[in-house]
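Pasting two entries for a bug report.
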Amino acid sequence: MKIDTSRLVDYKVPYWYEDHIIATEDSRYTIIAYNITECRMGSYSAQLGIISNDTNELILNTAMPYINYTLDNPIVYLQSLACIAFSIYAFKIGSKKSSRPSVILDMEKRMFCIINVFVSFYYEIKEHCLETREIIFTIRDSCERETKNLQVEKSIIVNLDSQKWYDLEQFEFAFELFHKQ
């Protein structure tokens, strides 16, 4: 899949980590995680670009905030809800909020919400109930043994309609919006 990287904010030719390009299952969007950097041992960040395959429009391109990038499942497309999910870095000294909350982009409404759930690599996100627009964070099967003695919830159900939604044009202020919630 070829992407015109000249359209992406601050794009740098990959030196160490290759760009991660995802085509959604329904072929509506191409998602690129680029400028992938190890910000501390085993923890990666990236910039994000989302392109509409129908119109070739660059729908979202992040300069800030950086997304929390994991090698397995960094970005999830919830096709039935037409939503894209990932987490961002949002650490703030003195805050009791998650340092890596989840972001849900509603691609049809061009809106996003920020969910105060710490999404470590132990969790995966899935559609839960389409009628009530619920998603679920669950412990990955491969992580059951590792999380057995940790005090983490095995699953967290979130109703998307109960979240505060923002216009996608405000995404560059996601960090500030999250800490004001």
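Entry 2 (this is the one that rendered wrong in the viewer):
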Amino acid sequence: MKSLSLLIVGLSLAVAAGVMVRESRLTGPASVPLASAVQVRVTGAGNTLAALAAAPENAGLISYDPATRTATSRATLVVEGELVLGRENEPASGETLQFDTQSCGDMRLEVRPGGLLRVYHSTLQTVSQVLSAGACSRGYGFFCDGELVMKDSRVRYISGSASECLRGQARATIHRSVFSYCDGSALSCVEVDGGRIDIDGCDFRGSGNWGLVVEGRGGEPLVIRNCLLDARVGALFVSGRSAVVRLVDCVFDPAKLVFNQDSGEVQIAWTRRVQVVDARTGAPVPGAMVRVETGSPRAAEPVETRADPQGRASLVLLERIARPGRRDAGATLEHRFRVKRPDGEWTPCPDPLVARGKDDQPVILPAS
């Protein structure tokens, strides 16, 4: 145990210095086991858990308790049509779908291409709620190749070691949801197109090595907004070729950014609110233009935005860009502002700004 602790400490120091590591040095994910051959297939639109349980062909495979709004599945659930848990904006409508697993990944929740899973105010978990110390616990596998819409929900006891949660051309909207008590990783994104994924306001608390795993890239960079990422070894594990992740307003330990290839990057950015005021009177300047230039030409092109009637505007600014295998990766970036009245000239602001952490009040920008 002492040697393992030393390995983890050494890994954290290496990541902080921008050093690439290989997953094989740690407890890597096991090969994905085969799911149960017994399946419940969901076809057509508007399916509910209660309706699935009431279907004669599913007798003995899935049951539903209306008193607790809980469905228990004893089979892999394959969504080829639409399945809906709960109702949006109605917390009391939430339901629980639990899998009666017996071993790691022996049952799955699969959303096939063309399938749609909607989850509102609901919980996905196992019956046993067992999380062992092994690399692959008694969780269920989760695979989405179709579309997932999840809001205000909880995902528990996924076997991340036996899952590829979002992959390929999957679409996903995941808001204000918590992924926890998951082995391996809390959420994995494999070769996804970030333009098809919207993740905002979530917690990814892995009980295994990783919080969020991003493997490869299938299109635009993956953007994660206002989320918490944490696990034993890595809050974010970037693998595959050319993976690019943008973390905006996220809470995580910077020493827990881990790369497993010699390519890819993590862009760390923060939202900054500004207010343009008259340099002499301090009154807001409605409709003023705000321009931001970043010190590194590699980091970003200049950004311009127009202030609202109260002189306020909001921008997303890079703190730094982390890349594997470079000790200078992650240097903090400086941003310089210029402001302009609707009928005036550009006025440079004297002091550069470093974006680090969430802001608690707007930055005041004086306009001449």
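Dev reply: Rendering is fixed now. As a check, the viewer should reflect this: The two ends are 63 Å apart (CA to CA).
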